[in-house]
Amino acid sequence: MVTWFINAPWAKVICILLVISLCPIPASLRPAHAAAQQTTETQAGGMEPDPCMTAQQDATRDTNKGLWFLAGCAIGITGIIIAYVLEPTAPQSRLIGKSPQWVSVYIDCYQRKGKSVQGNAAVTGCLVGEGVLVVAYLIIIAVAVESEDY
Amino acid sequence: MTLVLAALVLAVAGTPSVNSVCAVFERMVKGPGSEEHVQGFYYFQAPHKVTLDVRSPVRQLVVFDGNTVTFYYPVENKAFRVKSRSPVSVPFLEALASVQPETKHLAQLGYTLSAHEFKGDTLVSRWQPPPKLKKALGALTLRETRGRLISFDELTPKGQLESRTSFANHVRFGSAYFPLEIRSESYLESESSEERVTYSNVEFNCTLPKEIASFSLPKTAILREVQW
Questions:
Q1: Is pLDDT above 50 for B96?
Q2: In this model, does residue A34 exceed pLDDT 70?
């Protein structure tokens, strides 16, 4: 089953399409608020970090990219699908003492970013896996052709 | 750090005759460009339920119970219920668990004692991670004085200091010591951070307030459920 996925001719095409669709948007095209606001002052006078930015940083840091890379590499499309479906687990201690609005934004941003990071790693793994297979096939073909010539 | 703490901590739940704990807590987290202060009340109910009644900077009740954490905002009447795939470790509250040098738990996890020495009355021991996990985990350095864990360092697999957690101001209950001050510093990359938690007015086997002991979400609360 796994070999069938990896060897399927459409697997590589889908991987490439996914990579293209996941390419990061240039900073100049992003909404201004996403890059601008870093912290807001809380009622207690402390500085509260921007929820979406904090969530994105946490999700990037928490996600086990190596694992998702391996998943993409080993089970190809299936790994990618799982990466985009499985909800990443956020550190709940982050939500203590935060307003409901902050928590809501944090959860949304964390899940979105977490899935994106998982998915990107799985896609990269899938592409690398496919690339290795292609190179291996080329070497085998080249060796076979060369041995036929002799 | 959670794994290490879990190994070192003989939780309140495991301490004989502790059925409940009440305390005032204060938490400060300092990171790059931000500083947060949270204050409120801490309640522990045996066997494993912990409730934080946060009073500042917002009014919030946080209930940790098994795999579920509920965040309830009484003023807004809003709630978030987060269900996790695995049991949730109660964040930053290890301080109020009985942090003791339970090195046998480290050994059970596969850590091996590689060196130890006395510096004054402080025993410094160094623990190596299980061979299978050497690429993911680094060594640990524990410091203990008169049966109380006072700090531990976590190193990266490459041997760099990743974080240092220190415990101070221990109070004794039965045969166990409870540190009332815990300080964690993370030295990783550019994201160095510091967390300090202090507890005061600690009461063991206290009577929990009724609204905490029998808390349930009001039926009118706007609830958002999240699966993690």
A1: no
A2: no
| B52 in reach of chain A (CB within 8 A) | yes
- Among A147, A21, A81, A139, CA closest to A131: A139
CA distance B117 to chain A (A): 35
Chain A residues inside the 8 Å CB shell of B57 = 42-44, 46, 48, 97
**Residue that the structure tokens 């203990």 belong to:** B144
A42 vs B36: CB contact, 8 Å cut-off?
yes
Of the two residues B228 and B156, the one the predictor is more confident about is B156
Q: Do A49 and B34 touch (CB under 8 A)?
A: yes
ipTM confidence: 0.75
**Which token pair is B109?**
């996890």
Q: Are B185 and B164 in contact (CB under 8 A)?
A: yes
Whole-number Å distance between alpha carbons of A62 and A89 = 8
- Taking the whole predicted model, whether its pTM rises above 0.90 is answered as no
The domains found in chain B, sorted by start residue, are: 3-227 (2.50.20.10)
Task: Say what the pLDDT of residue A24 is.
Answer: 39
